[in-house]
Specification:
The protein is an alpha+beta fold. Helix content is 48%, strand content 20%. The chain has helices at 2-41, 48-75, 91-101, 103-108, 127-143, 199-209; strands spanning 87-90, 112-117, 122-125, 149-157, 160-167, 213-219, 223-231. The strands form two sheets. Strands 2-4-5-7-6 form a five-stranded mixed sheet, with helices on one face. Strands 1-3 form a two-stranded antiparallel ribbon. It starts with a helix and ends in a 5-residue tail after the last strand. Residues 189-193 have low confidence and may be disordered.
Length: 236
């Protein structure tokens, strides 16, 4: 028992060290960009057009930094995912709300979203936790396809709800499809390095806390489909 306890403590310590190292690395990149932009803005010979472009880039990096901090805080605490109020809610309505919530992010990246959502799809759980999963899937789809064409579908099958997010991105090699769900993992040949490497890790944790699972179907050069398999509930 003591040996097992020591081993678990060592594993926890190692995991914490890796997490903090990854978080530090992710935060350094946008901060370095912001420092460079700020130094450039101090140049008196800089014309207004270049100044405007730099300020626009600074806003993008601040948005990215805010997103990374949000994900790191969620990933660093078990209490941040899966806790909160448990209630029966309509997954279609919740999906529509989440899509509307990040519509500006989608539009700013010239992405498009189409919905095909079945009615009468309810589940019991914490609706904010579903939001964590769906927002991260959508952000990934937007970031890794240029421009992104995203399709979100919801259907009921037996006593399960299948909520899928499909994209026209570069796809994911078979050898990489398992490890991308680990924290701070990115695809080496990805067209975009703006992600934090935490998104899919948070998706996995969120869905697990809802007594569900997540699966991936992907082919390089064609795109990817992530499907959340969630427990349905009948309301009479």
């Amino acid at each position: 028992i003591l040996t097992l306890a020591v081993r678990r403590e060592q594993q926890f310590k190692r995991a914490r060290e890796l997490f903090l190292a990854g978080a530090t690395h992710e935060l350094k990149t946008p901060l370095a960009c912001l420092r460079l932009y700020t130094e450039t803005l101090q140049r008196p010979e800089l014309d207004d057009s270049h100044r405007g472009k730099i300020m626009s880039s600074m806003i993008e990096d601040m948005d990215r930094l805010e997103n990374i901090i949000e994900q790191v805080l969620s990933g660093s605490s078990e209490e941040n995912i899966g806790g909160g109020k448990i209630e029966i809610f309509d997954v279609r309505q919740e999906t529509e709300l989440i899509v509307d919530e990040i519509s500006r992010f989608v539009a700013d990246n010239n992405a498009t979203v189409t919905l095909a959502l079945q009615d009468d799809c309810r589940m019991s759980g914490n609706r904010s936790t579903l939001g964590v999963a769906l927002r991260n899937l959508m952000r990934n789809a937007v970031l890794y396809a240029e421009p992104a064409e995203i399709s979100i579908t919801l259907r009921k099958k037996d006593n399960r709800l299948l909520l899928s997010v499909s994209d026209n991105g570069p796809g994911i090699e078979k050898k990489d499809q398992k490890r991308i769900f680990e924290s701070f993992q990115r695809i080496e040949n990805s067209n975009n390095s703006a992600g934090s490497g935490l998104g899919l890790y948070l998706v996995t944790r969120a869905v697990k806390s809802l007594d569900g699972s997540v699966s991936l179907a992907s082919e390089p050069g064609i795109g990817s489909t992530f499907t959340l398999n969630l427990p349905a509930i009948e309301v009479k």
